[in-house]
Design brief:
By secondary structure, the protein is α/β, with parallel strands linked by helices. It has 8 helices and 9 strands.
């Protein structure tokens, strides 16, 4: 489906490791993101395991794909949220590739920049030794804008995915885990994603992260 709806372009896809675990930290702008991100990871010889908002499992076609691929739904605000994080820890411990959208939902920033993100990504990143790779993707919202219910497959758009270098978290792993530390690591990772997104868009990234009444910063 991804190839039909839009052309794909990947920059530095070789940074996906051929073997072993990896945590791919990505921005989230459209319900189409998992489709493109799954194709991107598969095209580099790996099987992605998604941590994504559970409501995606109710989206026609998308839900069937996610269920069939045995992906990991995240139930925000319930005891099941911790179970989802545990499943992601197990996937990384077993040498798998996990894709996470730390914003927890499609960004509410009017211009599509990342929102303040949830700290579960920091826990995953700090507790495993595999590479933590920031990844930005842009173009899916131009095809399907979920908040405004706009579907514009034509003319065909280009969806670009750009990978950064693995983030060195060794200094953080030596420190006691605190809420402040988790927040710093989360903002560091999403800052890298934001800068990659700025490169794709050819624009200056805004300072900080978008927040709104619906954006909850503390969690998981």
């Amino acid at each position: 489906m991804a190839g039909v709806l839009g052309k794909r372009r990947t920059v530095h896809g070789e940074r996906v490791p051929a073997t072993g675990s990896a945590l791919l930290v990505m921005n989230h702008v459209s319900h189409l993101d998992p489709c493109y991100d799954a194709v991107f990871v598969h095209s580099h010889g790996r099987v992605p395991h998604f941590l994504a908002k559970h409501s995606l499992w109710n989206v026609p076609v998308m839900g069937a794909i996610l269920r069939g691929a045995k992906q990991i739904p995240v139930y925000r605000g319930t005891t099941d949220a911790q179970q989802s994080l545990r499943a992601a820890h197990e996937a990384l411990a077993n040498g798998q590739v996990v894709v996470i959208y730390p914003e927890g939902t499609i960004t509410r920033d009017p211009d599509g920049w990342p929102m303040a993100s949830r700290t579960g990504v920091a826990r995953l990143a700090l507790e495993h030794d595999g590479p933590v790779i920031p990844v930005a993707r842009w173009g899916t919202r131009e095809i399907y804008d979920g908040y405004h219910k706009k579907f514009r497959p034509l003319p065909r758009k280009t969806v670009e995915t750009r990978l950064g270098e693995p983030v060195d978290l060794s200094a953080y792993r030596e420190q006691p885990e605190t809420i402040a530390l988790l927040r710093d690591v989360t903002d560091l990772l999403m800052g890298e994603v934001k800068h990659l997104l700025a490169d794709i868009r050819g624009e200056q990234a805004p300072e900080g992260f978008h927040t709104s009444a619906n954006t909850k910063r503390d969690e998981d």
